[in-house]
Amino acid sequence: MTRGKNGVDDDIVDSLRALLKAGLDLGVAEANRRIALMGDPEDRVRGVDPQRTLREGSWLPLLESVKTDPAGVLQMVKEVWSRGGPKERRAAAHALGHALGRLAPHKSLGLSRELAAMARNEREADLVGSEAIGPILDANPPFLERAKQFLQENEPWIRRAAVAGLIMYVGRKRKVAAATLEVILLLAERHEADIKSAVRFAIKEFSRVDWKGTANVIAEWAAKDPTGGRLRLAKQFAAATAADARQGVEKIVFSSLARIAQAPTARGR
Fold it and tell me: Does the predicted TM-score (pTM) go above 0.85?
């Protein structure tokens, strides 16, 4: 996080600038209204060039307005996402995660769910996860449990976005990697191929953070369903881990699966 002029965070300013520019280009009225707050009061009477004000105006009044009245800007994010192309959608998701996630965090997490529901493909769902949900969690760690609830949604793109956001958030946070993976693994039994691929990617990334914890979670998850499809998936997931962690993960998982396979024989003696 870097501070620019007047102590305003550069990331917040850059994110909002891109959002407002996209709003102007798409004819979203809220963009003009918010940009007007950045200009000199006398200029507001004479009329201003919004593009120039966006480049040269003061960010402090705008940021204060977002903190006290975020509803219009949140709606602008939704409109830009809905009406824009790939560039505008990225700007909307980025602003939601990197600016509004700090200025209006509670409502921002809820809006990230709406954007994910509006996604048209897995790439857009991943965009919401990485650009919005992940950064919101970074700025607001207590929201982790709320984000995990997105994994239980009926809409597949919401689940996909949640996985992408959790992958980004966990990063190097070893203490939450295993616990988060436990929830993500519950998605593995769903039939959607895109969800299974997202789960495999999560396992790969989490194994970089804590390979032993990852292996133990996979093994425990498989052990809870020794006669079902989890055994086969557990082997696939062990093989999907990061290259430098794979041997250790496979050793733990395969040893656990062997014990599961021997258990009925042991009980029959």
Answer: yes
